[in-house]
């Protein structure tokens, strides 16, 4: 990992040297109107960091152990109870809230995958960041055409570029959906990690500089890694948990053979690569060195891969947390050396929950795995037999044994009503199910606002519901029911529920010289856009936003516009 960062650092240094020769003459500070004298001058660069699956619980557990970049951010303005307030706590909806100020009910990103039964292609499932109209595609990994078309709201970068076309926006992430949902339509650079290094939309050509970063990523993946040393804090958390089939999790140390891309992604190396690529692209585009404010967006996905592969406790997550802290520290050190006046915001797209097998051992005996019988295809088979309905294809479509369920369009009106009634009765009576909510019920509700801690389950579901995209009915499982029926190597734990362990994420703001404060009352990730807009003095239309500007100035003064 260190090796990788060093390799990237060398790459970026050569770029920095050439970039510095063409540094623009420093511009005079923008005059601050008298009426706004109490407002801080805008930073020249906003750095947005999303740490995939970095739950408020992880932040709490490891906060005392941070000494690097996360310790720096924890010394800024800290909101330990930020809410990804909606019910569909998945990566795509979560990333769509961070820089749009809007809940998924408005961004249109209702889940990672949903069904569009009007599609003419064979695969009616759609992936949130694809364009299904492209010939020969399907929603399966590696077979879709990456696209931002499903995002219905502008991002901070889009708004900044509209207000000042000189603004530069760079978005790099471990996952395409993170880079796309935060980067927006107008990003100058938008890349994600892939087995070929950095990838972007089809047909987007890599500059020679991006090609060099790609080559460094490929070389890193192609290098075998020995097990990481286990520091004493992580040794205390290292204990094997049996996941069946002769396998266990909890004691891993990220040893991996050469060329194992999945292993690379589920290790601290992946975040190191994104941070290094981000620092390098910042340098080559001279972000933060012009008179305008620029935007650098980095999606750090390794925590999520580690959580899914090994769970949220154990040696693996401990090593990941400490490595992330150290890598962010190195990244900020490089940012400091650039001399750019930058502000940082770090949050997450959703929280997470440990695997039931370890929860059961660790004083949470109710934790369990979902019954496969709740799956749409299992229910379809059962209901076809019980109701005597014979149509081609399933009666019900759904991407998981919870969330959105869709009724086949081949059903007659009468059969549709019978299937809906029978399916919702079976599901609602299941002991693992908290509730079943018809889409029509949600459609009739207003989008919720106010304290997200107190939202009802229906309100949470409403916040990620959109008529025409969401299911005909939605299912919320009970708390601590993990929606993975059977554990297996590579996928033991997940998120996605309506419960607070999946909704609560930290929101951390930092800038050099900022007076720190902590606000433990709930805030929301939809507050981030108006907050950053306030910080840089960007006027925005707030009428249709779900968030509010959080004043980052401790005591007198404000970073928000006058109401
Ligand atoms: Zn995620």
| Parts with pLDDT < 50 across at least 5 consecutive residues | 1-36
Number of strands: 20
The helical percent reads 25-40%
Kindly, what is the distance between the CA atoms of the first and last residues, rounded to a whole number of angstroms?
47 Å
Structural class: alpha/beta
- Mind describing the biggest β-sheet? 10 strands, mixed
Overall 3D geometry?
globular
Radius of gyration: 23 Å
- What count of helical segments does DSSP give? 20
Determine the mean pLDDT. Answer: 93
Give the distinct bound molecules.
Answer: zinc ion
Question: How much of the polypeptide forms β-strand, as a percent range?
Answer: 15-25%
Describe this structure in words.
The chain is an alpha/beta fold. It contains 20 helices and 20 strands. The protein has helices at residues 2-21, 56-62, 69-74, 91-98, 104-107, 156-163, 176-183, 208-221, 232-235, 261-265, 268-284, 302-310, 314-338, 356-361, 376-387, 413-428, 439-443, 457-463, 500-503, 528-535; strands spanning 45-51, 77-83, 113-115, 125-127, 169-173, 189-194, 197-199, 241-244, 247-249, 294-300, 342-347, 368-369, 396-398, 403-407, 433-438, 473-477, 481-482, 504-511, 517-518, 523-524. Strands 1, 2, 5, 6, 7, 10, 11, 18, 19 and 20 form a ten-stranded mixed sheet that branches. The chain has a four-stranded antiparallel sheet with strand order 13-14-16-15, with helices on both faces. A two-stranded antiparallel ribbon has the order 3-4. Strand 13 (396-398) and strand 14 (403-407) form a beta hairpin. Helix 1 runs antiparallel to helix 8 and helix 11 (268-284) packs parallel to helix 13 (314-338). The longest helix has 25 residues, at 314-338. The radius of gyration is 23 Å and the shape is globular. The model is unreliable at 1-36 (pLDDT under 50). The chain binds zinc ion. Zinc ion binds next to loops.
